[in-house]
Design brief:
Layout (H helix, E strand, L loop, with lengths): L5 E8 L3 H12 L4 E5 L12 E2 L1 H9 L3 H7 L7 E5 L6 E6 L15 E2 L2 H10 L5 E3 L1 E8 L4 E7 L5 E11 L6 H6 L3 E16 L3 H4 L6 E4 L2 E7 L2 E8 L9 H8 L9 E15 L3 E2 L2 E3 L5 E2 L7 H21 L8 H37 L20 H5 L39 E3 L2 E2 L8 E5 L2 H5 L8 E5 L2 H4 L9 E4 L5 E5 L7 H10 L5
Parallel strand pairs: 1-2, 1-10, 2-7, 4-12, 10-17, 21-22
Antiparallel strand pairs: 3-6, 4-5, 8-9, 9-10, 11-14, 11-15, 12-13, 13-14, 15-18, 16-17, 19-20, 21-23, 23-24
Helix pairs in contact: 1-4, 1-8, 8-9
Length: 521
């Protein structure tokens, strides 16, 4: 293999929310990383708009949830509105469940915020080195490492980085995925879209009826920041280079609006819909849009990527630190690829639901109904009915020990979330004490939850990182265990094993060895 200028344990390619989250998670495990991003700085565009409940739980674990909430919109913006034009009355509206109000299933609430407000917080969440303006050109994998060839656009010259593993979060047009020759499945490019960032005083129509997104017949309008700023999303015109964007935005606001938009930035992009056929190759692993590109309706794309790296990073740390076998990394694709396919189907369905609401409105207008008339939304009052998908994901792999009937196939996951402590599921949120959730007990370790901690604390768990937490007797029945039973929770918060009653003395060690793919003890 070629020689390298620098060596790290994990090279992260891509400095968006997924790569930045991976950097923060791996740093907490003590893993040496380098993140490279081909652009000269963080993205100046709003891009993703929604941080859902599950992502906020992960950010709570990283200690940054409060800051993200402080920079985001108030809860009342957790709503979508449909209008003929922005200055018309709503003909339909729906709340974003888990964003507009607290939910009993989680200790946190999601937020509406712009990606360019989120990324600086994620960047500051870790001290590991980041190199902007550095682009990956090629990769060469050997039996023990990967050597990446890169070019530094800011300072000139090339470099080689040797890494034990490469985590590619370099977007839908992933260079890494292309270099690996990994194909994708799904609809592919669904639409060419333009985002126009602009300033205008639109408070007259929006201040008393806030929303995270206003869908209109002339494109979507999104408030960008609590202090002001807007974005308009619409199909890219045939000749975008000659477009008068200020005029187009002003016309999209509707006749009689009498508002002139001050255009600040324009970005053209493609709404993709696909899942990679493989989530990696050997020591090179794909995450986020590199692994699955999702339509933006419903806000599932970035959040799915954040859950990808939450699943992956503890496994990388275990293999690098020697308490997990390399086969544990195979469970990343086994667990996350079915989720990606399910989420893609949901995102495509979300898009159809949005168009269905707008089509119903067009039918009303054609029959002469008055503008304030309402359209009954086709998603039963829940914002595209995705809470079950966000919190109810079930993993089936060698890193989960089932204790009875196997969990449902991913296609069977409903739109409603039903908390359960069955192996493979996210451990339900239960209060362990004042302002302390079961989810707060999880971190860079396995967690044993049991009503009888004394008996379990006497059992050795070396070499695996393990903490024992007391589960109140009142919660034992809800979790399907007796006072002598226990739950083994993975670092990503999913239940890896459950003992309904007191098991044999070596059950814990055997479970940890099996879940982590370690050599039998």
């Amino acid at each position: 293999m070629p020689t390298a200028d620098t060596e790290v344990e994990v090279l992260i390619v891509g400095g968006g929310p997924v790569g930045l989250t991976a950097r923060a998670l791996l740093e907490r495990w003590g893993v040496r990383t380098l993140l490279v991003e081909k652009h000269p700085e963080l993205s100046p565009f709003p891009r993703s708009r929604l941080v859902n409940t599950r992502s906020m739980e992960i950010f709570r674990q990283l200690g940054i949830a409060a800051e993200i909430t402080g920079n985001a919109f108030p809860r009342e913006f957790g709503r979508i509105r449909f209008r003929d034009t922005l200055h018309d009355s709503d003909f339909a509206t729906a709340a974003m469940v888990g964003v507009n109000a607290p939910i009993p299933e989680s200790p946190v609430i999601g937020v509406a915020t712009s990606q360019d407000r989120l990324e600086p917080t994620l960047l500051a969440a870790a001290d590991a080195p980041v190199r902007f303006g550095v682009e990956l050109l090629d990769l060469a994998e050997g039996p023990e490492s990967v050597v990446a060839r890169l070019v530094d656009h800011q300072h000139g010259g090339g470099m080689r980085i040797r890494a034990r593993y490469v985590l590619a979060a370099d977007g839908a047009n992933s260079t890494v995925r292309e270099r690996l020759g990994i194909d994708t499945t799904g609809p592919g490019a669904m639409a060419a879209v333009t985002t126009v960032v602009f300033d205008a005083d639109l408070n007259t129509w929006c201040a008393d009826q806030p929303a995270g997104v206003y869908f209109t017949a002339h494109g979507s309008f999104l408030p960008l920041y609590p202090e002001g700023g807007w974005a308009w999303l619409a199909p890219t015109p045939e000749d975008p280079d000659r477009a008068d964007w200020a005029d187009l935005v002003s016309r999209a606001l509707g006749p009689g609006a009498a508002v002139r938009a001050d255009v600040l930035r324009v970005q053209h992009w493609v709404m993709n819909a696909f899942v990679a056929e493989r989530f990696g190759d050997g020591r090179i692993l794909l995450a986020g849009d590199a692994a699955h590109a999702l339509p933006i309706i419903g806000g599932l794309g970035m959040n799915t990527g954040i859950s990808d790296v939450h699943n992956l990073c503890w496994k990388l740390a275990g293999v690098l630190r020697g308490w997990a076998g390399p086969g544990l990394l195979d469970t990343y694709a086994t667990e996350r690829q079915p989720v990606a396919h399910l989420t893609l189907r949901q995102a495509v369905a979300n898009t159809h639901l949005m168009f269905q609401a707008q089509s119903l409105r067009q039918q009303q207008l054609q029959t002469g109904e008055a503008a304030p008339a309402r359209v009954e939304l086709p998603w039963s009052g829940r914002y595209f009915a995705q809470l079950g998908l966000v919190l109810g994901v079930t993993y089936r792999s060698a890193a989960v020990l089932t204790d009875g009937a196997p969990p449902p196939e991913p296609s069977d996951v409903g739109t409603d979330y039903v908390p359960t402590a069955e192996p493979g599921h996210r451990m339900p949120h239960l209060w362990l004490g004042r302002d302390r959730s079961t989810l707060d007990a999880f971190g860079e370790w396995f967690t044993l939850l049991t009503p009888d901690p004394t008996r379990w604390e006497q059992r050795t768990a070396a070499p695996w990182p393990l903490r024992v937490e007391t589960l109140a007797d009142e919660h034992a029945g809800l979790c399907g265990i007796s006072p002598g039973g226990a739950l083994l929770i993975r670092p990503d918060g999913h239940v890896s094993a459950r003992w309904r009653d007191r098991p044999p003395g070596d059950a814990l060690v055997r479970a940890l060895a099996t879940v982590t793919g370690s050599a039998p003890l």
